[in-house]
Amino acid sequence: MFSKETYLQRRNQLKNSVKNGVLLFLGNNEAPMNYPSNTYRFRQDSHFLYFFGLQLDHLAAVIDADEDREILFGDDYTIDDIIWMGDQPSIQSLAERCGVAESRPFAALAEYLKKAQEAGRTIHFLPPYRHDNRILLHQLLGIPFEKLKESASVPMIKGVVALRERKSAEEIAEMEKICDLGVDMHLSAMRGAKAGRLERELAGTAEGISMSGGAGVSFPVILSQNGETLHNHNHEQLLENGRMLLCDAGAEAMSGYSSDYTRTFPVSGKFTQKQREIYEIVLRANMETFQLARPGIRYFEVHLNAYRVIAEGLTALGLMKGNPADAALAGAPALFMPHGLGHMLGLDVHDMEDLGENYVGYDETFQRSTIFGHGSLRCGKTLQPGFIVTDEPGIYFIPKLIAIWEKEGRFAEYINYNKVREYIGFGGIRIEDDVLITDTGCRLLGKPLPKQPDELEAIIGK
User: Fold this and answer.
1) Could you tell me if 381 and 298 are in contact, meaning their C-beta atoms sit under 8 angstroms apart?
2) pLDDT tens across 36-63, in order?
3) With contact defined as beta carbons under 8 Å apart, do 432 and 392 qualify?
4) Nearest-CA neighbor of 188 among 212, 153, 170, 171?
5) CA 265 from chain center: how many Å?
6) CA-wise closest residue to 249 among 224, 217, 227
7) Which residues contact 202 (CB under 8 A, 6 or more apart)?
8) pLDDT per residue over 209-244, tens digit each?
9) 406 in Cβ contact with 444 (< 8 Å)
């Protein structure tokens, strides 16, 4: 938790942005795994965390812009709770900790909002993503379930995005630490890779590192020899020499900030010629992204350059043909890279995605493309100092996608399907780094994580 002055400043900035009405924040609750008292690890709502910093369940808060007041709603723990949990802070002390002047029992929230509604005041809230909070919002405000998302406050969404998208110095310091831990997770996977081991052994070791140095993983570990499946959470295969292993994993700090890296490497510790050729194309796209990313450039343009680099490399290998720049603009490389170049990163691994990608990654000056591949880019808008984005190009050989495109004759002027079919079974390669946009360019967060082919060959299985 940062100092209470940090949270006071954030709330004041949001209040000045939205200007009127009651801004409602619902914290998260414990989520049972299989019976009520056996719960998953608690994860606070990121927006509640950003503006109030409190990592406890069953809390709510309001910022009343009309009356210039802030209230924390929650209940003090009973002796029955304390017997099992130990002594706990009072709601009043929690409010003081984050600079909120008033605290009230949780049940008082309904009456407060009812009076505000009766007075014709606007109740601002963010799109709910957990079912218990959807039910609570329905009960508090009387909004039908199917209209909760569309009833969320656009001024509040835009105000939150404007604050959270640009990271402060203290946030960047948290990100540096958790990126270091993310690097350690990946180094463990590289060093543990040996034919005959189960993928889950490496995934489990990496997850253990995230728990020993932080709050656990920032998302379920993706570690698979079937790298052509973009979000592959199955870890049941035995590692085999000759195959590539893709590991996409990150850690979450106790403060909630996240890291997100991907590395792909040969199980045997030695790239085949075909593997190295494809790998070096992805690496070139990754490194050119780092060279281009800077304030004032749209990340869509950087994404488009990554597509061009991939088209150039695959044309040199005979898998594509024609003009690479034209192929990139048309979206032909999406056969090999059907996702966007990257996304925002911060308190969420896909930062603020619950608010809607079009609010986070796009704005009034630049809208999302409708072209397959380009339309998957989560962040396409103009970069600014303080943004943290991922740089994650990839090349994948997805059998069903290849079959569909070939049958439809899609981009036949750019794609050599006869050659592409020779790569079915290859898998997929992705290389991902976490990048901070600075005043003049960008820099990588965290300590170095090997990605040059020779560096990887020197560490795999060692």
Assistant:
1) yes
2) 989 999 999 999 999 999 999 999 999 9
3) yes
4) 212
5) 23
6) 217
7) 188, 189, 192, 193, 223, 235, 239, 245, 247
8) 999 999 999 999 999 999 999 999 999 999 999 999
9) no
Which residue spans of the chain are classified as CATH 3.40.350.10?
4-164
Whether the per-residue pLDDT at 85 is higher than 90: the answer is no
Domain with CATH 3.90.230.10 in the chain: 169-459
Measured distance CA(314)–CA(420) in Å, rounded: 10
∠ CA 358-59-219 to the nearest 5 degrees? 50
CB 65 within 8 A of CB 21: yes
Edge-to-edge strand ranges of the sheet holding 261-266: 222-224, 244-249, 261-266
In contact, 405 and 372? CB cutoff 8 Å: no
Over residues 350-356, the mean pLDDT reads: 97
In this predicted model, what pLDDT tens digit does every residue of 255-280 receive, in sequence order? 999 999 999 999 999 999 999 999 99
Rounded distance between C-alpha atoms, residue 93 and residue 26, angstroms: 19
Amino acid occupying residue 89: P
Which among 268, 256, 247, 177 has a CA at the least distance from the CA of 216?
256
| DSSP letter for each residue of 75-106 | -PPPHHHHHHH-----HHHHHHHTT-SEEE-T
Dihedral angle sign, alpha carbons of residues 270, 275, 277, 279: negative
140 strand-pairing partners: none
Q: How far apart are CA 297 and CA 292, in angstroms?
A: 8
Domain 169-459 architecture: Alpha-Beta Complex (3.90)
Encoded amino acid at 86, one letter = G
What SS3 state is found at 322? coil
Q: What are phi and psi of 388, to 5 degrees?
A: -120, 120
Reading the block at residue 459, the tokens are 């560490």
Q: Write phi, then psi, for 272 (nearest 5 degrees).
A: -75, 165
Q: Which residues contact 444 (CB under 8 A, 6 or more apart)?
A: 290, 433, 434, 435, 436
Looking from the CA of 373 toward its CB, the CA atoms found within 13 Å total 22
Helices (H), 145-241: 148-151, 154-164, 169-192, 199-213
For residues 339 and 11, give the distance between their C-alpha atoms in angstroms, rounded to a whole number: 35
At 114, list the tokens. Answer: 């009812």
Judged against a pLDDT cut of 90, whether residue 82 lies above it is answered with no
Please identify which residue in the block is written with the tokens 């709601």: 91
Helix (H) or strand (E) holding 371: none
CATH ID of 4-164, from 2.40.10.120, 3.30.930.10, 1.20.1050.10, 3.40.350.10: 3.40.350.10
Tell me how far the alpha carbon of residue 186 is from its chain's centroid.
17
Q: Hey, is 45 helix, strand or coil?
A: coil
* DSSP 8-state secondary structure symbol assigned to residue 128: P
